[in-house]
Specification:
The complex is a heterodimer of chains A (112) and B (113). Chain A contains no helices and 11 strands. Chain A has 112 residues and is mostly beta strands. Helices cover 0% and strands 53% of the residues of chain B. Chain B has strands at residues 5-7, 10-13, 19-24, 31-38, 42-50, 53-57, 64-68, 74-78, 87-94, 103-104, 108-112. Chain B is globular. The chains are: A mainly beta (112), B mainly beta (113). Chain A binds chain B through residues 30-31, 33, 35, 41-45, 48, 50, 86, 88, 90, 92, 96-105, and chain B through 33, 35, 42-48, 55-59, 88, 90, 92, 98-107.
């Protein structure tokens, strides 16, 4: 079974700071998602990646398959970035239980 | 393309009742996966349907069931509701079965009293 660990669990920062959220997993995977969830809201998929690096606006996601590690970076953070960020991995087992495995999430608060 | 839609968005039920949630996938997607999110357990995989057949299943009791129709719309049913079933239920659609490429709906928030 894949274990997904995120750090930090909670992060409070000032507007404009560079933010890094980390995700580590225990078993080789096919792909990894970074998801965003605002309080009381649904889930938005920010990135799906299986190698290298992706960038979308102020968000950057990287993955190191050999190290079993991914990072989500937010540049020039803004209060609207305040949300829970969740890492999810896909590691098919072929045993009829294939689904995403999720981390517990990182609760990010950006103060003005 | 329209995204994944879920109905209803909010629901309040009483312990012992049953509930049915609906998910309409992105047009052309034939796979629908369901997930449960609770404060204690976080997000967990329930099951996946593809071409009207359950293809994958997580570790949940038989009270949780689902089905998929020929138009790929899926329903999830929970019978004999318990307080612990209060959660956000998310569905995700994919063009293929057992695929990491999943697109999430907004979720249905179920409260059991």
């Amino acid at each position: 079974k894949n274990e997904v660990e995120q750090s930090p669990q909670n992060l409070t920062a000032q507007e404009g700071e560079f933010i890094t959220i980390n995700c580590s997993y225990s078993v080789g995977i096919s792909a990894l998602h970074w998801l965003q969830q605002h309080p009381g809201g649904g889930i938005v998929s920010l990135f799906m990646l299986s190698s290298g690096k992706k960038k979308h606006g102020r968000l950057i996601a990287t993955i190191n398959i050999q190290e079993k590690h991914s990072s989500l970076h937010i540049t020039a953070s803004h209060p609207r970035d305040s949300a829970v960020y969740i890492c999810a991995v896909w590691a098919p087992s072929g045993g009829g239980a294939d689904g995403l495995t999720f981390g517990k999430g990182t609760h990010l608060i950006i103060q003005p | 393309k329209a995204g994944v839609t879920q109905t209803p968005r909010y629901l309040i039920k009483t312990r012992g009742q049953q509930v049915t949630l609906s998910c309409s996938p992105i047009s052309g997607h034939r796979s629908v996966s369901w997930y449960q999110q609770t404060p204690g357990q976080g997000l967990q995989f329930l099951f996946e349907y593809f071409s009207e057949t359950q293809r994958n299943k997580g570790n949940f009791p038989g009270r949780f069931s689902g089905r998929q129709f020929s138009n790929s719309r899926s329903e999830m049913n929970v019978s004999t509701l318990e307080l612990g079933d209060s959660a956000l239920y998310l569905c995700a659609s994919s063009p293929r079965s057992a695929s990491y490429e999943q697109y999430f709906g907004p979720g249905t928030r179920l409260t059991v009293t």
